[in-house]
Amino acid sequence: MEVVIQPVEVLAQLAANAIERVLQERPTPVLGLATGSSPLPIYDELARRHADRGLSFARARGFTLDEYVGLPADHPESYRSVIDRELVSRVDFAPGAVQGPDGAADDLRAACAAYEEAIAAAGGVELQILGIGTDGHIAFNEPGSSLASRTRIKTLTDQTRADNARFFDGDLEAVPRHCLTQGLGTIMSARHLVLIATGTGKAEAVHQLVEGPVSALWPATIMQHHPHATVLVDDAAASRLQLGDYFRTVYANKPAWQIP
Ligand SMILES: N[C@@H]1[C@@H](O)[C@H](O)[C@@H](COP(=O)(O)O)O[C@@H]1O
């Protein structure tokens, strides 16, 4: 696992560089897209590169991580709407090129199976962007999730619903209780994982992710088993890392060709 501790502007550049390489090198690039506030600086940087020098997503496909159950797709806080607003509408994906699990489906289990099939049919995800919840969830894989799980229905924890109430005008009751989410096994199938976390609220989750024992109690710890995982954190999110000084030294002495 590679851990980079830098200001958020630098983290966004590094993530955008990795995404740009996938867009340029792959004939049909497949990106894994995350919602939440953490990836927004990355999307801003990608939109800037698209506007300034024509970085193109026209050949790319995108798969989002998760979706609330019960919100209509056009609800402003459905993850479908969020990713459209924050990235898709700002660049040049082909119509229909970005998909998410269908949380409004009548048959949710069938929707989960169909989503797994769609990702596999696209050849799998090349680069998966991730955020992390304060309780260590990635996508909506809450503590207790099977480390081998695939896309399925999950119940959100009280903590996640409280964390996400800010997107629903602070109204906890408006936050859905259920979601569809790629499983930890699904996420682990992506060829490169790029997680971004900022702020002290994420410090304990980042410590567990990087240095804790691999455990369903902190689902993101499964990333320790991934052969190509990059963790991008600012000073605040890195503040509980025992190995923080070491990671800073590694990055400062890194040959240019190794930068993610
Ligand atoms: N399902 C999303 C996750 O994908 C995201 O990583 C997490 C953290 O969000 P934020 O980046 O806003 O802190 O929130 C939600 O629960």
Automatic annotation (TrEMBL):
GO terms for molecular function: glucosamine-6-phosphate deaminase activity; identical protein binding. Keywords: Allosteric enzyme, Carbohydrate metabolism, Hydrolase. It comes from the Bacteria. Allosterically activated by N-acetylglucosamine 6-phosphate (GlcNAc6P). Pathway: Amino-sugar metabolism; N-acetylneuraminate degradation; D-fructose 6-phosphate from N-acetylneuraminate: step 5/5. The active site is at residues 66, 135, 137, 142. One of its GO terms (biological process) is N-acetylneuraminate catabolic process. The record marks 145, 152, 154-155 as: Part of the allosteric site. One of its GO terms (cellular component) is cytoplasm. Signal peptide: none annotated. Residues 9-226 form the Glucosamine/galactosamine-6-phosphate isomerase domain. Its EC number is 3.5.99.6. It catalyses: alpha-D-glucosamine 6-phosphate + H2O = beta-D-fructose 6-phosphate + NH4(+). It is an enzyme of class 3 (hydrolase). InterPro entries: Glc/Gal-6P_isomerase, Glucosamine6P_isomerase, Glucosamine6P_isomerase_CS, NagB/RpiA_transferase-like. Catalyzes the reversible isomerization-deamination of glucosamine 6-phosphate (GlcN6P) to form fructose 6-phosphate (Fru6P) and ammonium ion. Belongs to the glucosamine/galactosamine-6-phosphate isomerase family. NagB subfamily. This is Glucosamine-6-phosphate deaminase. It comes from Flavimobilis marinus. The lineage of its organism: Bacteria, Bacillati, Actinomycetota, Actinomycetes, Micrococcales.
